[in-house]
Each structure stands twice: as C-alpha cells, then as structure tokens.
From TrEMBL:
<dbReference type="GO" id="GO:0016651">
    <property type="term" value="F:oxidoreductase activity, acting on NAD(P)H"/>
</dbReference>
<dbReference type="InterPro" id="IPR036291">
    <property type="entry name" value="NAD(P)-bd_dom_sf"/>
</dbReference>
<feature type="domain" description="Enoyl reductase (ER)">
    <location>
        <begin position="12"/>
        <end position="340"/>
    </location>
</feature>
<dbReference type="InterPro" id="IPR013154">
    <property type="entry name" value="ADH-like_N"/>
</dbReference>
<protein>
    <recommendedName>
        <fullName>Enoyl reductase (ER) domain-containing protein</fullName>
    </recommendedName>
</protein>
<dbReference type="InterPro" id="IPR011032">
    <property type="entry name" value="GroES-like_sf"/>
</dbReference>
<dbReference type="InterPro" id="IPR020843">
    <property type="entry name" value="ER"/>
</dbReference>
<dbReference type="Pfam" id="PF08240">
    <property type="entry name" value="ADH_N"/>
</dbReference>
<dbReference type="InterPro" id="IPR047122">
    <property type="entry name" value="Trans-enoyl_RdTase-like"/>
</dbReference>
Length: 346
C-alpha cells in the first residue's frame, strides 16, 4: 500500500488516504516510482472551483518525475530504470482509473506517449519544474488556433522562423512565462520583451529576454516603454489602428493582463486569440505536444532550456495541503517552484 492525496468528489476536500500500488503496466503504460513532484496552484483550484477533473475519485499532482519500474507489453521506448518526467493525469472524461495516474503518491502509471527521458544534466527536483509549465508554454505558442497562437512549430523546422520580429511575454517571471521566453528565443523573436517583478529581473534575462518592464507599470507607461524599445531595436512602425505588436503571449491570463494584451496587439479587422492548457492527452493538444516530448531530452542535453528555481518542501505529501493554502493566499512567489519527495511522507 502507499499514501496518496485524493479528492473523492467534485468540490471535495483533499484527503490523505492509502491505496494499492499499481502492480501491472497494461499495454501503452509504464509504472513509475515517483522521486519528485512539484506543487501547482491548479491543485487547490480543482477541488475548490470544481474544474479540470470530471472523473472521481482522483489523486492530485501533475508534475511527476521518477524511475520506470515496469513497462507494458510491446513498449520499446522505455526500459526499467529509465528516469522520466511527464504531466501525470490524462484524458479528461475518459473514465481512466485516475487514482493510478495521479502524482501525489509514491507510485503511478503513465501513458507511454508522453513521458520524456531526463538527461543526467537535470536532477529529479529540477526536472519536476518542467512538465506542465513547459508543455503549456509550447502549446500556447505553437498549437493551431484557437488552441494556441499558431506559430510555426519548432519541431520540425521552426527554429529562427520569426527572426527580428518583436514579441511581448506578459508574466515572464512565472513558470509558464519563463519557458515562453525560451521558446521565443529559439523561434528567433527579437526583441523579446517581458513584464515581471523587478525583484526577479535577472531571471527572465537568463532564458533570453532582451528587455524587462516592471509588471506594476501602468498600461500607458508600458505602451510608452514598448514604443521606445521598438524604435531603438527595429525598423517597425505602428501597426494598423495603433497596434504595437503582432505577437503577445499572456502567461498570466488575468482580466487586467488580457486587457493590456488587447491594447498592445495589432488592431484591425481581426485579432486572433488562442488559449491552451498544459495537458497533453487532450484531442486538441495531442499532436502538437507529442513531437515535443520526443525532442525534450535532446533540447536539455544541448542546453537550450533551464529549469525553474526549486524550493524543496520537507515532509513529502504531508506538506502539500499547507503549501497549497499558501499558494491560494499568494504567499509563494511564482519565481520558485515548490517540490516534494513523496517518499518523505510519514
């Protein structure tokens, strides 16, 4: 038996329970011993707001890293002993045995199409900062409209496709925004402008932002600063109807940031808006993100991406509920990813 954090019904509470360890990997599945799982704000929103999950009971936890201990019949992509990462829970509304697939436990099943092998350059903790934020950023930028911005995907041939085109990443210090900056750099965007807290201004520059603007600046001042940046770095003139930018990625998606994005993006007869989630095994996401899982290991080995900052929270699963309360109360900075080790649970 193993300890797990479960929600038994919609709008239910997070409860600690014991449940069986998965013993058999069926076709298309692997079983992983979880070494690290990062904590996401979504994990308090699901039970409180009744969103995302439609089949209960469910074990929460999505950013999962661990060692493969069993492989389903006919699978050649992974072997016992491989270190892998993934977004743990898949296929909303599919009646999958959700408790077997959740990340807040010591062992879970994974669908074989979406884990990626972890190169030795990443620790388990660092690797756990990637899955949902990394793949959400990729889908937001490269999935087809209206499920993303519709940019030419990096895989197979989108590198440097947008050379000398400017882009604004709203919330570049966030988990998703930080990876959005890194993707923008690989796509060739320049300048890469971002908004973030100036207390953490060095972090967005590391992944490739060229200009940083205080996230608390007024919309009018933000526009003025972007005009100044564009005038000094590009030959771009104002776009139709007073728009400044052809591409804006809002990694925060609050009403205030959405208003800013609409104000700055190129106006005219039509503005295309895309929205996405970080879950791969949803029909609208599946094809876009599968190629990225296949490419992930090489990208990390080549040093193209850096993980988020890590805060290892002691206590394992016992620490999750308190950490989620702190997230709900905005007491945890989005610049640092809290990570637990399920094996430390009492």
């Amino acid at each position: 038996m193993q300890t797990a954090l479960m929600v038994n019904e919609k709008f239910g509470k997070i409860t600690r329970t014991t449940r069986p360890i998965p013993q058999t990997a069926d076709a298309g599945e692997i079983i992983v011993k979880i070494k690290a799982a990062s904590i996401n704000g979504m994990d308090w929103k699901i039970p409180k707001w009744g969103i995302i999950v439609y089949d209960y009971p469910t074990v929460l936890g999505y950013d999962v890293v661990g060692d493969v201990i069993a492989v389903g019949e006919g699978i050649n992509k992974f072997s016992v002993g491989d270190k892998v990462l993934t977004v743990a829970v898949f296929s909303f509304g599919s009646c999958l045995p959700y408790p077997d697939f959740g990340g807040y436990q010591s062992y879970c099943k994974l669908k074989v199409d979406f884990p990626a092998k972890i190169p030795p350059t990443l620790t388990y903790d660092q690797a756990s900062t990637f899955p949902i934020a990394f793949f959400a950023a990729y889908q937001a930028m490269y999935n087809t409209l209206p499920h993303g911005m519709g940019l030419t995907p990096l895989v197979p041939s989108g590198r440097d496709k947008y050379t000398n085109k400017p882009i604004l990443i709203i919330g570049g210090g966030s988990y998703v925004g930080s990876f959005g900056i890194q993707f923008a750099r690989l796509s060739g965007f320049s300048p890469v402008i971002t908004t973030t807290s100036l207390k953490h201004a060095d972090r967005p520059k590391g992944p490739g932002a060229t200009h940083i603007i205080d996230r608390n600046t007024s919309p009018a001042s933000l526009r003025e600063q972007i005009v100044s940046i564009l005038s000094s770095t590009t030959n771009q003139t104002l776009l139709a109807e007073g728009g400044l930018l052809e591409y804006v990625f809002d990694a925060i998606s609050a009403p205030s940031t959405q208003s800013i994005a609409f104000d700055l993006v190129a106006a005219g007869e039509r503005v295309n808006v895309g929205a996405t989630t970080g879950f791969p095994d949803v029909p609208k996401n599946r094809e876009c993100v599968k190629a990225v899982y296949d490419q992930f290991t090489k990208w990390i080995e080549d040093g193209l991406f850096v993980p988020s900052n890590v805060e290892v929270v002691p206590g394992g699963l016992d620490a999750v509920v308190d950490c989620l309360k702190r997230m709900e109360n905005n007491e945890i900075s989005t610049e640092t990813k809290p990570v637990i080790h399920p094996s430390e649970s009492s």
